């Protein structure tokens, strides 16, 4: 191998994962892909993969015996029609980048950005949020904790959603601000219909607190919330960062979930504590401004990286 | 088909919980009428939401009771009560709210004006009385029995009504029968070119053996007399000038003399006092029938010789006299209305206020002696005059005694004792400051003057005119000060005290009646630029910040429940 060829090969090795990732994120459905030069099945060990066509440069013979390609699983045959043809393909060379990960198995964990919109029924909540459909944002971490088979998985998620709203009274300096935070723990049961689509049902529960400020008056309320929802989980094909047995696979994963959240309601009682700098101020009364119900249907969307 | 229907129903189910109401948190900025002190409550009326907030200061939570009022409230007043009349059974711990309603538009239906009577007792249902006119003026008799609703000269009706009668009014008679519905009588009084400025109520005059209250309507150049017991009778208009040409008299003061069935009118721009004699004609043949009155009025003039600045009545029967002071001419004039004879005495100060009082005679059987205190409130005189009214006609200037003041008087407050007689006069200096001249207290019985100093400029002087009385004021913005004007249990007269509060004080309102817990409260208002409610409640008899409570933001109570206007 000449020096220039060696450098080109090294550069190709370095950039191939990026090329592959870009291509995978725009991957077309498996059944729309050409039947020539398919990628090897990604859930097989590297040693078990069949090298593709003739190498560009002669390579030293492998010292280990070449394993026979594994028979395709029914899952592969059903979900990935091209995978059934892998046995007839030439084995790829070891240094060549691996193809997209299209099975669910390596994607056990997810870190995601969350967005949640509620459909408020309670008039008090609507006025405090000044919207019928307040939207919050947050983050979550998710993990598959149990996979009895290739099609079913149970996933736990821990999330934080925050919502904040501020409004101003016309003609005065009065402001109203409501900050809401919710920590929730959820469990979902997922069924892998396709390699990129899995409907799920999810149940979650959590604790939250709201902080309300009206003019110089403020209050803080804690609440509990339970939710039952269902939706679909979408994923892109994954990509291994490097070659080897322990190489993690990365994929983009999204949730779309709708459901109903049942939460404890609050009676807001605001009070001012800033009227005096005295060490023993004159007690100030509390003001009950009204009731806020939090139970409402919701739509939850998340987008994250699975690995 | 059933499956489709079921699916559609399920899909639309969430919409059932929706409404298209306004989701804005903020309603329009509060627009409050002046705070109203009831006997043991305090009331606020918010115009935008048409809500009256009644607070019981004895309630530890200071949670207001909210009552709806009519649309566009313009007047909120405490109902009058004449506590000296033991026969007065008319409830008076009540809030009167006059609303103008809305004349409507192509998009908004018309809302009639109304008068609401809201009792401090929540068990008493509010009285709601629709009105035919959109009035913005309310006058009431001392005993709270009669109300007259009218169009004030600079009222709102002029700008948002297409056609209206400025001399239209409604007479409300609550009668003295407890629980009886009030009688509302509409009336349009005769116009002599002008509109009502002020309405005053008389003590009972007796005609045909029946006592009756008269309402005297003051208008430019004339007055109108109405018999409130017979509101459908024709009103009596009394022009103050022989001809209306070049007549620019504004009646400003009325003295009622029911014993002699006379009314005296002082008008700015006139050097005379107008005497209106009411003659009982109930015994005439044939007797007058409605709508004619059973009395007639005749006008005469009593010459003062100068513009009178103030006047009082003293004496009784044929001995009744009018004492008038003229600041311009520096004179005291005693007039015998029976013969128009006037005794004129020069005064050393340009007195513009005269305060009548009486002192006991030398012997217990002697008749009380009629005296007067003459005060100059405008031209910075440093003395006051004591006048022996009964002796002025005989001894002239010898009956007047000059007493020096440590500082010119700016405001003068007569104080009544337990027998409802003027016992003291408090004069607050015009600057309300100075080490020895902020307040002067004059004991009328002994003609002794006490001067009270102030280390700093005081503000918001507030006098409790009931016995025991106190002068409240504000020092350094947030310090509530008081001066005992009369001796109180375990507290001497002229004792002072002060209570620092947490916020600057803008208004001081002592309540007149103790709450159910036996404590009488003092309401101290604070800066409230955004009108959300801000006051502190103190024990009026023992003000102490350790027992005080601040009500801040109470106008937000149940805010989320209120509909957007």
Structure, explained:
The complex is a heterodimer of chains A (307) and B (565). An 8-stranded antiparallel β-barrel of chain A has the order 1-2-3-4-5-6-8-11. Chain A has a two-stranded antiparallel sheet with strand order 9-10. Chain A has a domain of 196 residues: Porin. Chain A is elongated and about 70 Å long. Chain A starts with a helix and ends with a strand. Helices cover 12% and strands 43% of the residues of chain A. The N terminus of chain A is likely disordered. By secondary structure, chain A is mostly beta strands. The mean pLDDT of chain B is 88. Chain B is 4% helix and 44% strand. A 4-stranded antiparallel β-sheet of chain B has the order 1-2-3-4, with no helix packed on it. In chain B, a hairpin with a 4-residue loop joins strand 24 and strand 25. Chain B is mainly β and 565 residues long. Chain B has a domain of 95 residues. The interface between A and B is large, with 43 and 35 residues.
CATH topology of one domain in chain A: Porin
Largest sheet of chain B: 4 strands, antiparallel
Low-confidence stretches of chain B: none
Fraction of residues of chain A in helices?
A: 10-25%
Broad CATH class of one domain in chain A: Mainly Beta
Helix content percent band of chain B: under 10%
C-alpha end-to-end distance of chain A: 36 Å
- Structural class of chain A comes to mainly beta
Radius of gyration of chain B: 27 Å
The oligomeric state of the chains shown is: heterodimer
What class do helices, strands and sheet pairing of chain B give? mainly beta
Main attributes?
heterodimer; A: 307 residues; mainly beta; Porin; eight-stranded antiparallel barrel; 3 helices; 11 strands; 12% helix; elongated; disordered N terminus; B: 565 residues; four-stranded antiparallel β-sheet; 42 strands; globular
